[in-house]
Specification:
The protein has 8 helices and 32 strands. The radius of gyration is 25 Å and the shape is globular. Strand 30, helix 6 and strand 31 form a beta-alpha-beta unit. It folds into 3 domains: 140 residues, Galactose-binding domain-like (Jelly Rolls, Sandwich); 88 residues, Sandwich (Immunoglobulin-like); 314 residues, Glycosidases (TIM Barrel). It is an alpha+beta fold and 609 residues long. The protein is 19% helix and 32% strand. The chain binds beta-D-glucopyranuronic acid (BDP). The site of beta-D-glucopyranuronic acid (BDP) has 9 residues, from loops.
C-alpha cells in the first residue's frame, strides 16, 4: 500500500486540522443518520489526536461507543480528470466514513491505514462534507482483544458497562493519524514492492509493480545526488548496483526508486519511493545486517504523549528520535501496534532500526485457569483478524529499510496447546507476504515449554525479575536472568533478544540503598539484567521497557500510568537514561572502532560497587 506522495502526476491534500466532534452517548447517531446533515452541538477537535485528553470532561476521557467527526473541504475541478482517494492513516478502532451523506467505506482495526476511491462522491464545484463515525470498543475478535462487561451494584441497580482490556496502555481513541485526499491518474500505479540486498559494495533491488496491464512501466534508481545508477522497463525485474551504498543503522543511505507508467490515451504516472539497500540474515547466535553482526540497543516504545494521547505529532516524534540518538540507541520495537507511517519514514531517514509489531497484545490473561484459545476468548474470528493485520502491516511497511523483523504477537499464551495451530497460520501469512524478513514474538517468563518457538527466527523475552516476582530482591536478578537466557539458548538454538525489562520509577524519588520506585532501583535492576545479558553470547540485543512513562488504565499498580520509562512522559531523563547513555555510547564507540561486536566486559564505572 503506497504512502501518499506528491510527484508531477500526483497531488496530495492534507485534511488534518480542527474538525467538529460529537460523542454519541445515547448511541443515536447511526440510527438517526446524523451523517445526512451537518452535525449540531459539536466541539472543536484536533485531527490527528486522541479525543480523550483534549477536554476537561472526564466522561469523554473514559467514553465508550461511537463518536462523530466532521469536516468541510473543497477540491479543485481539475481533479475531475483524476482518481481521487480518501485515506485515513488510522481510526481507532472501527470507522464508518460518509462523504456528502453517503457511506464510502468501513474499517476495523485501529492502527493501519485504509482508503477508497471517492471520485464519484465528490462535489467539484461546491463544499464537501466528510463525516466519520469512530467506535472504540474492543471484543474478543478484535486486535487487540477486549470485552465489554455489564456490571451492577446496590448503588447502580440499572447496571453499567465497562470495557475490559488485557493490555497495559490506555485505550486511546479517535483519528490518530493524518487524513488525506489525493489525486492520481485514473490508470495510475497501484502498488510497488521492493526487496533489496547488499553485499560488499554490490547492491540488488528486486521489484514488482502493480499497474493496469496496458501500461508500460519504466523504473530508475537515483542516488542521493539524483544521478541515475540503474534503469529497466517492465512491471517486474531486478536491478544490480555496483559500488553501492548500503543502508546501515546510523548511516542510512537512501536511493530513490522512480517508477513511471505510460498508457495509451491516459495520463502518465510517476511515484518516487525512497529505498535502502541492505540484507538481513539470522544465524543461531547472530543477527546480521549487511553481513555484520547487529546488536539491538533501544526500547519498547509507545505512541503516547501529553494531550495528544496516541495522536501522531511531528514534535514528539522528532524529540524522541533526538533522544534515541542522544542515548546511542539504534533501534526500537513498535510495541504494541503499528506506528504512524510518518514515524516509519523518519526511521528510514534517521537510520533507526525497527521491529514492527501487529496489535496482538493482551492475548494472555495472566491467569492459569483461563483457557485463552477457546471460543469465548481468542477465537477463530480473532485469528482471521490477526491474519488480516499481519497481511496489512506487511503491505504497508514492507518497503521500509528500517524494518528488519516482524513481531507477530506480544506475550500470547504460547504455553497452551491451542496456540500452535493458531500461530502456524499467523506465521504462514507472514512468510507468504514477506519471504525475506525474520519473524519473532515476545515471551513471558512462564515455566511451561513454549509451543511455538520453533516457528520463529528470533526469540524475544520479556523479563521483570525483582519487580513482578521477588519484588525488591535485586540480588536475585542477575542469576535469574542468566538461568532464563541459558535455558532458552540451549532449548532452541536461536538468537535471543531481551525485548522488555525494567522497573517503575517516579522521577525525583531517590533512595540509597535502592528501593522499588526510586530512580536508583530502576538503574540497578537494569544494570543487573545487563550483566547477565553480557554473559550470554546468544543475546542479540537489549530493549529496555520503556522509552518514556506512558498512560494506562487506572489501577492500584499504576501511579498515573506506567512509570517504567527511562524518560518521563515529558521526555526528561531519569537516572536510568544517563546510565544507558554511558553504556550505549561505549558500545557504539567500540562498534565504530573495532567493528561491530558485543561489549563483553562492563567497564568498572558501570558496575555496582
Ligand atoms: C509486559 C507487557 C507491557 C507492560 C509491561 C509492564 O508486554 O505491555 O507494559 O509488562 O508491566 O508484560 O510494565
Amino acid at each position: 500500500m503506497l504512502y501518499p506522495r506528491e510527484s508531477r502526476s500526483r497531488e496530495v491534500k492534507d485534511l488534518s486540522g480542527i474538525w467538529r466532534f460529537k460523542a454519541d452517548s445515547q448511541a443515536q447517531g447511526l440510527k438517526n443518520q446524523w451523517f445526512l446533515s451537518p452535525l449540531t452541538e459539536t466541539i472543536p477537535m484536533p485531527v490527528p489526536s486522541s479525543y480523550n485528553d483534549i477536554t476537561q470532561d472526564i466522561s469523554l476521557r473514559d467514553f465508550l461507543g461511537d463518536v462523530f467527526y466532521e469536516t468541510l473541504f473543497h477540491v479543485s475541478p481539475y481533479w475531475q480528470a483524476k482518481k481521487v482517494l480518501l485515506r485515513f492513516g488510522s481510526a481507532t478502532h472501527k470507522a464508518i466514513v460518509f462523504l456528502n451523506g453517503q457511506e464510502v467505506m468501513r474499517h476495523h482495526g485501529g492502527f493501519l491505514p485504509f482508503e477508497t476511491d471517492v471520485s464519484a462522491f465528490l462535489d467539484f464545484y461546491g463544499e464537501n462534507r466528510l463525516t466519520v463515525c469512530v467506535n472504540n470498543t474492543l471484543d474478543w475478535s478484535s486486535l487487540p482483544p477486549g470485552e465489554i462487561t455489564s456490571r451492577n451494584d446496590a448503588d447502580h441497580p440499572e447496571g453499567y458497562q465497562v470495557q475490559e482490556t488485557y493490555f497495559d496502555f490506555f485505550n486511546y481513541a479517535g483519528l490518530h493519524r493524518k487524513v488525506w485526499l489525493y489525486a492520481i491518474p485514473p490508470q495510475g500505479i497501484e502498488d510497488i514492492q521492493v526487496d533489496t540486498s547488499y553485499e560488499k559494495g554490490q547492491g540488488g533491488l528486486t521489484y514488482q509493480i502493480l499497474a493496469p496491464e496496458e501500461s508500460q512501466v519504466m523504473v530508475a534508481l537515483l542516488d542521493a545526488q539524483g544521478n541515475k545508477v540503474a534503469e529497466a522497463t517492465g512491471a517486474s525485474g531486478h536491478l544490480n548496483i555496483t559500488n553501492a551504498n548500503a543502508w546501515e543503522p546510523g548511516q542510512p543511505y537512501l536511493y530513490r526508486f522512480q517508477v513511471s507508467t505510460t498508457t495509451e490515451n491516459a495520463a502518465d504516472d510517476v511515484y518516487i519511493l525512497p529505498v535502502g539497500l541492505r540484507s538481513i540474515k539470522v544465524t543461531p547466535k547472530q543477527f546480521l545486517l549487511n553481513g555484520k553482526p547487529f546488536y539491538f540497543r533501544g526500547f519498547g516504545k509507545h505512541e503516547d504523549s501529553d494531550f495528544r494521547g496516541r495522536g501522531y505529532d511531528a514534535v514528539t516524534m522528532i524529540k524522541d528520535f533526538n533522544l534515541l540518538h542522544w542515548l546511542g540507541a539504534n533501534s526500537f520495537r513498535t510495541s504494541h501496534y503499528p506506528y504512524a507511517e510518518e514515524i516509519m519514514n523518519f526511521a528510514d531517514e534517521q537510520g533507526i532500526v525497527i521491529i514492527d509489531e501487529v496489535p496482538a497484545v493482551g492475548m494472555h490473561l495472566f491467569n492459569a485457569d483461563q483457557q485463552v484459545f477457546t471460543q469465548d476468548r481468542v477465537n477463530d474470528k480473532t485469528l482471521d483478524n490477526h491474519i488480516q493485520a499481519v497481511q496489512d502491516l506487511i503491505a504497508r511497511d514492507r518497503n521500509h529499510p528500517c524494518v528488519v523483523m516482524w513481531c507477530l504477537a506480544n506475550e500470547a499464551a504460547t504455553y497452551e496447546d491451542a496456540c500452535l495451530p493458531y500461530f502456524e497460520k499467523v506465521v504462514q501469512t507472514a512468510r507468504k507476504w514477506d519471504a525475506h524478513r525474520p519473524i519473532t514474538l515476545t515471551h513471558t517468563p512462564v515455566k511451561e515449554d513454549c509451543k511455538v518457538a520453533h516457528l520463529f527466527d528470533v526469540l524475544c523475552l520479556n523479563r521483570y525479575y525483582s519487580w513482578y516476582s521477588d519484588s525488591g530482591h535485586l540480588e536475585l536478578v542477575e542469576k535469574q536472568t542468566l538461568n532464563s537466557l541459558a535455558y532458552w539458548a540451549e532449548r532452541w538454538h536461536k538468537p535471543l533478544l531481551l525485548s522488555e525489562f525494567g522497573a517503575d520509577s517516579i522521577a525525583g524519588l531517590h533512595s540509597e540503598p535502592p528501593v522499588m520506585f526510586s530512580e536508583e532501583y530502576q538503574v540497578e535492576m537494569i544494570r543487573a539484567m545487563l550483566k547477565a545479558v553480557d554473559a550470554c553470547d546468544a543475546v542479540i540485543g537489549e530493549h529496555v521497557w520503556n522509552f518514556a512513562d506512558f498512560a494506562t488504565k487506572q489501577g492500584i499498580t499504576r501511579v498515573m500510568g506506567n512509570r517504567k520509562g527511562v524518560f518521563t512522559r515529558q521526555r526528561q531523563p531519569k537516572m536510568a537514561a544517563h546510565f544507558l547513555k554511558q553504556r550505549w555510547h561505549d558500545m557504539k564507540d567500540k562498534d565504530d572502532h573495532d567493528g561491530p561486536s558485543r561489549l563483553s566486559d562492563l567497564p568498572p564505572y558501570l558496575m555496582r560497587q
